[in-house]
Structures are given as C-alpha cells and as structure tokens.
Fold these 3 entries.
Entry 1:
Amino acid sequence: MSEMRLARTILSVDDIDQMVKRVADEINEVLVDVERPVFVGVMKGAYMWMADLMRAMNREIELDYIDVSSYVGDQSTGHITIQRDLKVDLSGRTVVILDEVVDSGLTLRYLKADFEARGAEKVYVAVATDKRQSTTAGGITPDFIGAQVPDEFLVGYGMDYNEYCRSLPYVAVLELSE
C-alpha cells in the first residue's frame, strides 16, 4: 500500500464554519418561499457538509440520501451506479443535492437530470468544494459553492482515499508515495 502524507491544509475548521454559514444563508435566501425542501446527500462524502448545513439552515427540511459510485480507488470509471436509492418521492418538490466536491461533474450532472426526470419541480446543487478550473466544466454549474479549491487530491470533510481520512474536520492535500 502507498504511504499517505497530509501535505498542507486547504480549508481549516474555521474556514469551513464560515463557509457553511454563508452557504446556508444563500440557500435560505433562494428558498425563502419553498416549504420543506428536500435535501439529498450524496453518500458517503456529503454527510459532514449535510449535517453542518442542516444545523445552520434553521428551518424545516426533509432529508434523504443517495449512494452512487463512479470511482474505484482514486480513478473515475466514467459510469454512475446507484448503490442506495432515495426513499422520498420527488414529484413537485424542490430538491437541493448536497455533495462534498465537484470535480468532473459527472455524478452531479447525472443526479440533477435523474431527479428532474423523477418529477422534481426544481433541483439545486450545493457543493462544499469545487475543484474545477472553469465554472462550466463538466456540464454542471452548482448553484451554491462553499469554496474553490485546487485540483489536487483532497481528503477530509467527507472526502477520502480508499475510506481513509474522510472524518478529518478540515480539508487537506494528500500525497501518496510508494
């Protein structure tokens, strides 16, 4: 197995706290007239972002999870597989998809189209971190972005390397060596 080393911190605990409060305010402003929106966390990575946002929103929401996979190890397969589907009916509902990172955009683009096909009235995307170099890369533009981060291998705050480092309360660059 490769040796792992946290090279540097990209987002501190304080940075994340400020980011969460800002994005919660932005979502509350946009959804001010929406009664009980549905928040859908993309598992496993979105759990910290989702919990923090829910506490900061200070409003009634409905919550569900979807577990999808497009990676094996640190490589994207380019194909989305649903491991655990939603339980809530999205027909006529306003949905906010929560994910910890957007890089290729493949997963979020797929989920947004899928939720619209299921009858959602409006689908928003809120990501904690955006690694894309262009705001239109991947054919998806998140409606709410916590932080622009470098396009490096990041771990922490839900992001992992083969299930390692996911629970770190900050975001760091991971370096691997043989």
Entry 2:
Amino acid sequence: MALPDLTRSRRLQSLSLSDAELVEIRIKTRQRTFEGAYWRTCLSSFGFALIILRIFEKDFYGIGLVFVAFGGAMLTISALRRRNNLDIFDKNKPFVTSGGYVVLTSVIALITYLALLIMVFRLGEPKIKS
C-alpha cells in the first residue's frame, strides 16, 4: 500500500503564486542581488580604505586612496543602475540586459587592481629625497 507523497503535494500548492506576489518576489530579489551587491562592494572598499589609512604608515596612503576611488566608482555605478532600471517589470518595454554595467565594473576593477599591483611593487623601492 503506497502512502501519498504529502511533501510533494504541499510543494505544488505553495508554488501557485499570484502575479502581484511574483512581482514582489522579483523586486526584492533584484534589489538584494543587484543593488545590494554594488552597495556591499562600495562599503567594503570604503571600510578597507579606512583601515589602511588609519593603521598603516604614510607609504600606504596611496593604496588607501585607490580603495576610496574604487568605492566611489562602485557608488556611482550603483546610483546609475538604480536610476536606469526602475521600469524593469514594465511589460510594454523590451528587456535589456545590464551588460554595459558589467563591462564598466570590470574595467574599473581591472584598473584598480593594476594600480594596486604597481603601488605594492613600488613599496620596496628606496625614496629619493631632494
């Protein structure tokens, strides 16, 4: 005698959501994923810059300033993306991916990492005082 699969029937019942509930879930997911990611990156960059500027010597100030610039760039991208993606659930407008923001973020991160790499290699060089 086979018992009915109660967990499966409950799962199927819980998947029947109205359109308003689906839109609300999508909005929260988009906000948590996209907007939150840029904000978290920005805040962590500012926090790391603050740690570098407060704890280390003056030789490391350039590295701290690079992190401040990176955090500012992420904050700018977050604001641009939030302003331009307010109508993502409008059914009358075609869906456009955010590939431009991904490329912009990648270029800024690459420039930041190259600047940091150059600064770290220059830390060991002797300073010439005039």
Entry 3:
Amino acid sequence: MIKVENLHKHFGGFRAVDGATLEIAEGSITGLVGPNGAGKTTLFNVIAGNLQPTSGKVTMLGEDITGLPPHDLFHKGLLRTFQIAHEFGSMTVRENLMMVPGAQSGETMWNAWFKRGQIAREEAALGKKADEVLEFLTIDHLRDERAGNLSGGQKKLLELGRTMMVDAKIVFLDEVGAGVNRTLLGTIADAILRLNQERGYTFCVIEHDMDFIGKLCDPVIVMAEGKKLAEGTIDEIKANEQVIEAYLGTGLKNKEKTPA
C-alpha cells in the first residue's frame, strides 16, 4: 500500500531520515521500532505530509503522494495520530468525533441560514456514527465527558475513534502506548486488531513496548540512523545481531558476552 523509496529528510547537516526504503503491505499491521533518534517519527511526518522531504519518493497504492499536504492525504484515506493526543478539550468526546468529517453543510453561512433541515439530518447521521464508534471502542460511557478531562489512554482511544469517522485506508500510530496503563493499552490493542480484521484497516505502528508490538505486528521494521536496518517477525527481530547492537551498543553487547 505504501512504498518509500530512498527517502531523505535533512535538517541542516543532520540527516534524520537518510535513504530509507521500505514497504507497508495492504492489510498489515506493520511495526516500526528502533532506538531513540532512529528517524521513526520524522519518517511518519514526511509520509503524512507534516514535513516536506529533502529527496526521495512516497507512493500509496501506486500513486505518487510525495510532499502532499495532510488535508489532501486525509481525503485519500491516509491518517496519523500523534504521541501527544490532540483533542478539543472543551468539547465533549462525542462532539470531537462529529467534527472529523470534512465538507459538512453547516460549515457555510449560506447553508446555516437556508439549509437547516439538511444540516440537522447530517448532524443526526454523524451523531449516530459517533455513538457506534464509541460503543466499538468501549468508551460510550464517556460520550458527554469533556475531552480535556480524559486520561492519556482514553485520549488515545478518542484519536483512534477519529480515524473511524472517515474512510481511513491506512493509519499511522505514533507511540499509541505512551503514558497508557496496561488495562487501557490492552483495550487499544484489541481495537486495532478488530479494525484490521473486521474493517480492513492497514496500520503502521511506532512503539517502544515490544510486548505490544509482538501482540499486534507482523512484519516488524527496525530503523537505525535514518534508514531501515532489518525486517521480519518479532522473534526474528529479537534474535537479529544487528538489531541487538543498534539498541545496546557494541560495548554493552560485548560486555554481556564476556564471562564473569
């Protein structure tokens, strides 16, 4: 579904992404892991249009999407979440979901005056869909809670719910488990699996929790120094000497092998 070819993103002399080449298969839940500073989030930002690449190419289902802005990618079904959730804190959970779909009739002054019936029908349909999303995510009891009052894990579920309000094809999840307790993390993992299996969502997940990655992801791609280092199942990745060295460092790896 997504193909990244020789992608670069430089900040002055710093090469955050340095010739990354990888693919995300349609229908997969692909994990993206690597040590801090490996370029994972920068890669996400370039693919999702939040940053312009220095060079290289990104295609989605064979279409060149390199450098397209986020709103254009949104309409093509490419969405991303952030490590820190971005909710409208003063609005209810239900209202946050209802705001997601674009081109709503109520967005223009003319329609607000002369097409009130159409607006009411659209809002009723959006409200019904939002309720279905909240029930799917098992947070329907929070529908009237202000989003700013939610816990970190509940906010991550709300962000996942936003992707369900539109025709998402692929969703990039950036550290969805950060700051989330184990119970809610299990709820998030179950929701991702169900969206993948029941609704055909493709996911790419950045996460440091290897148990979470192991439960969800196949394949797992490892990045280091701005490029792909390895790819395989979670067991293959854990046994890969290059990956161990990238995470632990040569000195620590050799120290661990030295007899006491």
